[in-house]
Amino acid sequence: MGEKISLLLVDDERQFLETICKRLELRNFEVTPVSSGEEAIEAARKNEFEIALVDLKMPGMGGEQVLEVLKKEHKFLEVIILTGHGSIDSAVRTTKLGAYYYLQKPCELEMLLQVLEEAYQKRIQNKYGYKDEEMRKILSQMATDSSLKTLQNLKKFDTLRRTKQNPSNFFNEKNCY
């Protein structure tokens, strides 16, 4: 999906969906917004997403069910739960089901961007089998003071890996911001 990070955004609150979608699109995400769990599963079967941001409480198929299906069908998809109805029990359950992170609404945009950056790092680490030390080295080579710039660098790195190019050249050619 190009140089943008593909994000599946699942929430039954239309106003929230529109607002967060606009904000994330301005920050290098290609957002596919859907308003139900069923739509999320269908969209994920038709497109490859890198991260999913899923509301916990929705009519019909709830966030936990969506999480289970997404993790079962999409090995490297990182799922973040975002909810206005959080509890310790649901945080533990969703983490056990494979959620990368559990955020409560309202959530500051900078906090959300930080979690999205970390989730994307985790996806790359898992997808390419990097050990923690290797991933730290890669991240230190592309270190920036901005989550957005780090995400852009990680996306370029991922693109190079997928196209079988040597990512070490990426760091030597001053491609990082």
Structural class: alpha/beta
Terminal-residue CA separation: 21 Å
> Percent of residues in beta strands?
15-25%
The CATH top-level class label: Alpha Beta
Uncertain runs: 166-177
Q: Please give the share of residues in helix.
A: 40-55%
Query: What is the radius of gyration computed over CA atoms, rounded to a whole number of angstroms?
Result: 16 Å
Number of E strands: 5
Largest sheet, spatial ordering of strands: 2-1-3-4-5
The CATH architecture assignment turns out to be 3-Layer(aba) Sandwich
Shape: globular
Mean pLDDT across residues: 85
Summarize the biggest pleated sheet: 5 strands, parallel
Total number of helices: 8
- How many structural domains are formed by the residues? 1
CATH overall fold name: Rossmann fold
Order of helices and strands: EHEHEHEHEHHHH
Query: CATH H-level name... which superfamily?
Result: Response regulator
